[in-house]
Amino acid sequence: MMGRGRTRGRHRATLGAFALAAVLVPASGCGSPVEFYKPGGGGADDPVVGLGGAAPYVPPRTGRPRAADPPGTVPVAPAGGRVYAATGPGMIAPGARGVPARLYVADGRGIEVIDPRTLRLTGRFGAGTAVSRVVPSWDMRRLWTVDAVRDVLVPVGARTGRQGRPVPAVDPAALYFTPDGRAALVVAGRPRRLEVRDPRSMRPMASVPLPCAAADGDFTLDGGHLVLSCTSAGSLVRVDVPGRRVAGTVRLPAGARPGDVRLSPDGGTFLVADAAKGGVWAVDARTFATGGFVRTAPGARGLAISRDARRLFVTGGGTLFAVDFRARRVTARWPLPGGGDALPGGVTSDGRALWLADPGGLVYAVSTRTGRVLRRARLRGRPAGLCVHPQPGRYSLGGTGLYR
């Protein structure tokens, strides 16, 4: 059965706000010649031996989670230049250990909180608000909801679910955190700018004017630049974060409508989903030049990376595509329920499933090996965003499932 962590009974309270249908599919496992948890098999708060790849898990020495590393003390670039070396199965950061695994679904009327194991509603907050995104903070101890209708950012405790005081933010389209954890970056659509803020209080510190309306993005390997996509302008913009300036732009071929952005595992290429052209552009991270195109299907918009960092998952046109990073070709294509335009929320900690949200009112998990639907939940609202929390990684960069 997907997800072998210990069941937490105290999180099974049902609020009965919507009807849920669950389909549970057992997954086979294999034995081990030594006694240790298989990758992804330990609990969410079980530490790993190393961060270089799949590793055995050892029982925790104490029931209390270790404190998270403070901002500025975690190396930005992973060892050996492997971007996702610390996001493998079960590699939950110390600050997020003990945080219950939850699905946070922004449905246009608030945030539904769902237990991914039981598919039961465990909470709801922000009722009556039009939240479009739920973003984990850099240390993953809190969540930030992005509400462009009320022009606010609202903090929520990841363990308690308690909301903090709303912070004013004009037309926020997205929220990011610098890899060193020292700044939050709010992408504003009106006026077009990137606001640099204190990552805890969200107090404004600086502002960078943008040449186009941006939203989705990712950071370079060294963390010094944030690359954002401008859908309506058909271009990408590169922001020098320490220098507080736009360092360059690149216009994609005529008719392009870039969306989600992900950095390749070697840090050399940005992969950019294009709904209009129906595929993924490869843009050189150093020269900022377009270097190829992988065709998937019209409507390609959402991107997610497998736990072994070998495949890029692309959603669009009612289909989930798996693209091999090294070969840059589609290796699998799986139809999605109802052919809907699904939004990726994140890969599970063990890497076995990818959670997706369909704006038609469905949240479901598909196998990252076969594409088969493993679990599904029907909602009353229309999901506009999905966040799976916590996920493996040393820290969160915000956005939609950006971790390092």
Automatic annotation (TrEMBL):
Record keyword Transmembrane present: no
Domain of life: Bacteria
InterPro entries: Haem_d1_sf, Host-pathogen_enzymatic-act, WD40/YVTN_repeat-like_dom_sf
Keywords from the named record: Signal
SUPFAM superfamilies (UniProt xref): C-terminal (heme d1) domain of cytochrome cd1-nitrite reductase
Residues making up the signal peptide according to the UniProt record: 1-27
Listed name of the protein: YncE family protein
